[in-house]
What does this fold into?
Amino acid sequence: LNDFNYDDVYQLDVDLINSNLNQLLNKHENQENVVSQAMRYCILNGGKRLRPVLALEFCKACGKKPEHALPFACALELIHSTSLIQDDLPAMDNAPMRRGQPACHVKFGESVTILASDALSIMAFEVIISDDSLNKFTALKAAKTLVNAIGVDGLVGGQTLDINNENNPIDINALKKIYYMKTGILFHAVAEMGCIAAGASQKKIIAAKNYAEKIGLAFQIVDDILDVTATSKEIGKMPMGDVKRKKTTFPSLIGLDQSRQLVTQLTNEAIDSLETFNQNKIEFLVEFAKRLEARQH
Ligand code: GRG
It folds into this structure.
């Protein structure tokens, strides 16, 4: 009897993540401090939590309870959300809406947003280093993975290249590199951190990273597709943003049909890379990849 229900599992994971994020924010709650209000606003505003869910599910696929990966999952979500509020700032994408609500700088102003983003990224490391239930060696390994993914050779570097992508045509390899550094790398890191939490073998870590790299690129190509095909209600931000900023995207380089085909190919390759795991434990990860392929928001 197969009683696996993807939506139920996803919701359980999200509840676990949200309640942990809420607790972390409560630790720093100071009603009078507008920065702490902005932090709460940016974190508890309905993100899909794809990346932290991936950490919990890789930990499960390696045979351990999802709770083991919870601090790492939340750390990564804090960094991801921070990157979104920075990306929306007038000096970057100048986007007024995020997750279906006014962007942080629209609600709280730019200076508060910058300070909130500082505090949130610091909190990400606080979560990893101050959880006493974590083995210190494991925590250090996870922190190292996160540091490598988000610095100037990772997320920050990717965003830098992306800024130069405006009004400046690039080829497909340059675009793939930007997408890896600004999006794929966080999927990559979080999958690895989920495996690290479970004390998994190097073989499993490599397989997880392979899966994450493929779905990370597929995810970003779907983002490009939705930018030209979806409504603002569906994606929680203004569509046609890439077109307006004259950015090179997969649809602009290879067209919508070929972009969709590439997403399917990457999804299948991602699923194939899960063969090292116990096949009874990867149902969720297989479905996760398929849902990302078909997502409309
Ligand atoms: C915080 C160290 C640090 C650096 C930030 C600003 C910046 C450097 C990076 C921005 C990178 C960026 C905006 C990438 C886009 C990634 C992307 C496609 C986000 C949308 O992800 P979803 O759909 O969003 O998972 P939700 O809202 O559901 O979480």
The chain has 14 helices and two strands. The longest strand covers residues 97-98. Strands lie at 97-98, 101-102.
